[in-house]
Amino acid sequence: MSVNSARKPREVRCETKDTQTRLLNAAEALFIDAGYAGMSARGIADRACVNIAAMAYHFGSKQGLLEAVLIRRIAPINTSRRRRLEAVHERRAESIRAILHAFLWPVFFNEHEAPARRLMGRVMTEPAEVIEPLLNLGFSDVIEQFVVAAAACFPKQDRALIVQKFSFVVGALNLTVLRPSEHIFGPAPAAEVSFDRLLNFSVDGFQQWPSLSDVNKDMA
Amino acid sequence: MSVNSARKPREVRCETKDTQTRLLNAAEALFIDAGYAGMSARGIADRACVNIAAMAYHFGSKQGLLEAVLIRRIAPINTSRRRRLEAVHERRAESIRAILHAFLWPVFFNEHEAPARRLMGRVMTEPAEVIEPLLNLGFSDVIEQFVVAAAACFPKQDRALIVQKFSFVVGALNLTVLRPSEHIFGPAPAAEVSFDRLLNFSVDGFQQWPSLSDVNKDMA
DNA sequence: CTTGTATTTAAACGATCGTTTGAACTTAAT
DNA sequence: ATTAAGTTCAAACGATCGTTTAAATACAAG
Q1: Which nucleotide does the CA of B57 lie closest to, via C1'?
Q2: Do B78 and B176 have their domain in common?
Q3: CA dihedral in degrees (A144, A145, A150, A153; nearest 10)?
Q4: How close is the nearest chain B Cα to the Cα of A68, in Å?
Q5: Cα(first)–Cα(last) distance of chain A, in Å?
Q6: Which residues of chain A lie closer than 8 angstroms to B35, CB-CB?
Q7: Domain containing A176: what range?
Q8: Per-residue pLDDT tens for B12-39?
Q9: Which of A112, A123, A87, A119 minimizes the C-alpha distance to A102?
Q10: How far is CA A104 from the centre of its chain?
Q11: Do A140 and B215 touch (CB under 8 A)?
């Protein structure tokens, strides 16, 4: 019988980047898989091939490391979203499709596609107390801007309705990129396919209701 | 200055129900707020006004208690979903609206509305390793049945497309019931309002695409 | 009251948690 | 070679983790 190491035997060699980057990558992977409470400082250090004290030295604390992880990936996505929304406004092409396109595109297509996607999905579903201090780093602003833009497309709809429709889009996006259970929804389609489907689904859902009266009459 | 107890001072008296129910209620509340890794056995026992050993005595382990929590709330919802889908089939009224209505209704309107809703939202976003053993307790089956029913409504669409559209509905549902951040989407509307909006949004999103060609031509 | 089963309890188990310490080591400028 | 700043290290800190043990208690049946 073979002897196993104390923790999970890492099948891959450690990365060759600097310590801070190795810590960021390791924390990112473990946060995506297990959430904040489920990832341990020692697990991060092990995966990064770094002494556990390096975390406090470079990032102050586990929470500080998570903040750095999120800023590295989420901030560029939100910046891209803002830029694209501005471009839509400059072109005077404020359709709901163009707006949702600007919102969704940077999540699916960016420098570090898969990790950034899954990070985005995980961070939105974490318990409030862990994430809430991070949301004021530019997250609420982006949502607000897009809600305003979307509301301008439907002047006759309540703002509260627009907000909730947008939350539906965010929810669908979250589950798509987080992909919590292969056993339920099967293997993930390619990013281009998922993006197209999600955009079409969201655009259709955002339209005015086709008929407001037949809501309550087809259920027992 | 006043003296505080060791842990969070509970502002409310302990419930008067039996030990098992108190444990279930306490674990449910903490799981919704903090997830599985974030809830502690001692925190549960404290909130339930129960000795910590009672957890192992009545439920075997922390995982066993969580399973009991989920079965208590999720199983009735899935049973109700199945019943309503059967009723739709018996009435030969298999519209996508009726099918999605049968899927969504039991989440919003059931015996223990708010706790069951939020539990449903949390369990779908938990890390895989914690939840996956529970999904084979009837969860995947329900999704599968509804996907089949939905696919029958759109015979010309790929099954993979139907599956992903359904995942969009589940994602939107999750974020709606979980409501992770009041700061982003504001206060939650009444259950009836959220249900109507989510149903309409989902039904519209499920329709055939209005035009498949203008997808790639309105972005720079 | 006595017996036997079911439940609750205080206490402790070893393990792991996030964090801190101070020395050892590396690196580059003097 | 010497200094100083930057970085990594083994080791330990107290706290909390989930679980277990065995004694104490509650309670119905005989």
Answers
A1: C7
A2: yes
A3: 130
A4: 21
A5: 63
A6: 35, 37-38, 126-127
A7: 73-206
A8: 567 778 999 999 999 999 999 999 999 9
A9: A87
A10: 10
A11: no
Interface residue of B101, B168, B216 to substitute, partner A, most A CBs within 10 Å: B168
Token pair of B15, please?
A: 């419930």
Q: Kindly indicate the confidence band of residue B61, based on its pLDDT and cuts at 50, 70 and 90.
A: very high
- B199 Cβ nearer than 7 Å to chain D strand: no
Residues B125 and B195 in one domain: yes
Q: Is residue B11 over pLDDT 60? A: no
- CATH classification at residue A90: 1.10.357.10
CA dihedral A40, A44, A47, A53 (to 10 degrees): -120
Shared domain for B110 and B200, answered yes or no, is yes
Q: How far is the CA of A54 from the C1' of D2 (A)?
A: 28
Instruction: Report d(CA B99, CA B171) in Å as an integer.
Output: 17
A52 touches strand D (CB under 7 A): yes
Whether residue B164 sits in one domain with residue B92: yes
Task: Domain count for chain A, please give it.
Answer: 2
Count of H-run helices and E-run strands, chain B: 11, 0
* Whether A171 and B167 lie within 8 Å, measured CB to CB: no
Cβ neighbours of B211 (radius 10 Å) = 8
Residues 30-59 of B with CB under 8 A from A: 33-38
> What CATH number is given to the structural domain containing A20?
1.10.10.60
Residues in CB range of B195: below 8 A, 6 or more apart:
B104, B105, B108, B109
Is the shortest CB-to-strand distance from B200 to strand D under 7 Å? no
Between CA B149 and CA B141 the distance in angstroms is: 12
pLDDT in tens, A85-112: 999 999 999 999 999 999 999 999 988 8
Instruction: Determine the longest span between alpha carbons in chain B, in angstroms.
Output: 71
Asked if A45 and A78 sit in the same domain, the reply is: no
What is A86-98 written as a DSSP string?
Answer: HHHHHTT---HHH
Nucleotide closest to B7 measured between CA and C1': D16
Cα–Cα distance list, B129 to B120, B132, B159, B161 (Å): 17, 6, 27, 27
